[in-house]
Structure formats: C-alpha cells, structure tokens
Amino acid sequence: MNLLQDNFPTFMQGFGYTLLSSIIALVGSMILGTVFAIMQILPQNWVRTIGNVYVQVFRNIPLLIITFFFFLVVANYVKISGFTSGTIALTLYTSAFIAETVRAGILSIDGGQMEGARANGLSFWQAMRHIILPQAFRVALPSLGNQFINLVKNSSVLAFVGGLDLMYQGNMIAANTFDTFLTYIIVAVFYLVITLPLSYYVKHLEIKLKHAA
Amino acid sequence: MVTLGIFSAFTPENVLYLLGGLGVTVGVSIISVILSLIFGSIVGIIQFERIPYFSKFVGMINNIIRNLPLLLIIFFVYFALPKLGIHLPIFWATVLAMTTFESSMLAEIVRGGLESIDIGQFEGARANGLSNTQTMVYIVLPQAYKKMIPPIISQLISLVKDTSLALGIVLSEMTYRGQIVYAQNSNYIIPVLIVITLVYFLLNYGLSLIAKWADHKLA
C-alpha cells in the first residue's frame, strides 16, 4: 500500500482529469446527440441524410482514430492539448451513440402525443421540447446511463495522447515503480469508484421502468 | 505538396503492410469473438440459473470486468500478468484481454436474452419430459440466440474498433501500422488516417447492415 500513499496525489490528479473529461464530454455529447437525433426524424430529406451520415460514420470508426485525427491533424492548425483533443473526440464519438438512443426514445413515444400537441396549437418545436423529449428521455434514461459508463471507460484513450488522465498516470507510475500489478489494480479501483455505482443505478432504473410499463 | 503526399503514401509496400495490419485486426477480432461467445454464454447461463452463492459470485466478477476500461485490461494482461509468471506474446495477450472483456459484455446479452424467453417455454418443455439441460439446449437457447443476434453483432463491431487499443502494447494491427507509415513523412498523416478510417468504416458498416437485416428477418 506504500505505492498508493507515495503516488496518491498523482492518482488523484489522474482521477480528476478522467472525471473532468467525462463530464465535459457527457454534456457536449448529450446536446450534440439530441440535435442529431432530432435531425434524423425531421421530414426534410437532406437534414435526415446529414444526421444519418454523421451517426453512421462516428459509430463505426474507432475512437482512437478520431482522437489521433484531432491530436495529429487539427492540433497543427489550432493549438489544442492532448486532453482537449481526446475530450473533443470523446464528445463526437459518444454523441453518435446518444443520438441513436434518443432517436429510439423519440420513436417509442406514441404518434398521438405529437398530433395531440399540434392539435392544441403547439408548434412542432414546442411539442418536441415540452411534450415529446421529456417522455423520450425518461424511456432512454437507462441506455443513456450505459452510454455514460462507456464514456468514462472510453476516456482512457486520453492516455495515448498525453491526456494526464487516470490511465496515463497509471502507466507513468507503473513505469516508474516497476510494480505494474499493484498499480493497475489501484487504477482499476479508481475507475470502479465511478462506473460501478452508475451501473447499479442503471439496473435500478431498468427495473423501475419495466414495472412502470 | 499535400496532393503529392496522398499518392506517394500508398506505395505497394505500404499498402501491403497496411493490409497485413488489417489481417491482424480481423484475426484478433474473429478469435476473440468466438472465444467470448463460448465463455460469455457459459457465464450468462450461470447467472441466469441462479445457483446459490456461485451465480452471485460470478455475477459480481462479471460486473467488475464490465465496468473497467478495456485499455486497462489490455495493459494488465500484458504488463502485470508477467509478475505472476504468465508471459504471453502480444497477439495472445490482446486476444486474452479482448476475450475477458467481451465475454463479460456478451454474458449480459445472453442473460438478457434468456430472461426474455417466456416461462411457459420452460414449463412446456419440462412437462413434455425434457430434462433441464435438454430444455436449455433444444428449446430455450435457440430462441434466445435468435433474439441476441443483433446485439451480438453490435458487440462484434465494437470489438473490431477496440482492437485499435492494442496499439498500446504495440500489437502490429492496422492503426499501429498506419502510425509506422506516417512516421516516414508527416505529409502522409492525413491520407493514411483517412484510408484507415475508411477501412474501419466499411468493415463495421457492413456488419451493422447485417445486424439490421437480421433484425428485420427475425423480428
């Protein structure tokens, strides 16, 4: 346990960066994902196509490649750090999955809801914001929770671009102390501190939703 | 100069080298998916059967693995297991890490699939004189697998994407070989990244079309 004591500030710094990157990417990808989900169900063909292409492209390529693109290509033109490149890539990647989840949530809402809202004089956007989306998010909540767990786990790619996150610091400590075994176990515990409670909460939500239906 | 880079990056040697990387990517994916289907099914069935203590214990281990980053598992297998005297070559270390991680993911899918089967199927099979094992093998699992094909394929897609993480332990797969190619000349970075992206996309988009087709066909 000396290893933990000696390197505690470094572990905590990594933990902080992992948490920070995850929260920024969560907020960003929720907004972006919702926008692309709505784009995919609009009547205009060209808007739907843009939404579909975006989602399909980012869902089907590795997060690591997107990260490298920002770190190696974009960073040449705009000054961004490894942490920023990783977080932007994480946001774009996750938003594609969130778009799919939110779209499924919207489609699960009965068509009568939209018709009723429109018949009562709400515009399409008002109906979307006040009637459809609140219901869709409730249905999608467990899957969104799973996406957030994935996001936290995926934030470990920051280690490849010097993102100072938990995985990166873990690698550094492992390389310095040669105690790879204990270091990676400690890193694992730090990740579980975030993901395990979330996964139990998601399970709880799933059960609640099943009973409500 | 950039246009020059686009063409000169893809000399026959470089193209062959990248294709070899694609072979490693696909190889790791296929071996891992077959192994994790087997182990994932076993773990999923154990969790579904609710054997006292044992199922809970397996479920707990499964939950822990599922909630760790794959990258951490890869590093652990390659850098930490040698401390316990287990030395694996890079390729098999990747396969072991991927299989461990994907098995725990697939176990959840299998358990979910089994739970979605109507209890009447079990009762009917048992009433007709089939044993517990026979009920599982001939009646329940075939129905459950049918429902599980789309989620299993999306798991396969993330597996193909995740092989790129083995870059961290210098597995010579496509992303790593791409790095080697653009290390020759910085003008190669953009064309090589674009081509690798395209290859991953085509591979995974093809798989997702199969998932969609299976979903329609089986629904």
Automatic annotation (TrEMBL), chain A:
Organism (species): Leuconostoc carnosum (strain JB16)
Q: Which domain of life does the protein's organism represent?
A: Bacteria
A matching Pfam family: BPD_transp_1
| UniProt entry keywords in alphabetical sequence | Amino-acid transport, Cell membrane, Membrane, Transmembrane, Transmembrane helix, Transport
- Protein's cellular compartments: Cell membrane
What is the official name of this protein in its record? Answer: Glutamine ABC transporter permease
What is one GO cellular-component annotation here? ATP-binding cassette (ABC) transporter complex
| Residues annotated as transmembrane | 15-39, 60-78, 181-202
In this protein, which residues make up the domain named ABC transmembrane type-1? 15-202
Q: Key word Membrane present in the record?
A: yes
TrEMBL record, chain B:
Gene Ontology cellular component annotations, sorted alphabetically: ATP-binding cassette (ABC) transporter complex
- One annotated GO biological process: amino acid transport
Q: How does it sit in the membrane?
A: Multi-pass membrane protein
Lineage top rank: taxon: Bacteria
| Signal peptide extent | none
The places in or outside the cell where this protein is found are: Cell membrane
Q: Does the keyword Transmembrane apply?
A: yes
One GO MF term attached to the UniProt entry: transmembrane transporter activity
Q: Which UniProt keywords apply?
A: Cell membrane, Membrane, Transmembrane, Transmembrane helix, Transport
Ranges for domain ABC transmembrane type-1? 22-211
Per the annotation, which location comes first and is thus the protein's main one?
A: membrane
Q: Which residues cross the membrane?
A: 15-43, 64-81, 188-207
Q: Which family does it belong to?
A: Belongs to the binding-protein-dependent transport system permease family.
What NCBIfam families does the annotation carry? HEQRo_perm_3TM (TIGR01726)
Q: List the protein's name.
A: ABC-type amino acid transport system, permease component
> Which organism is this entry from?
Leuconostoc carnosum (strain JB16)
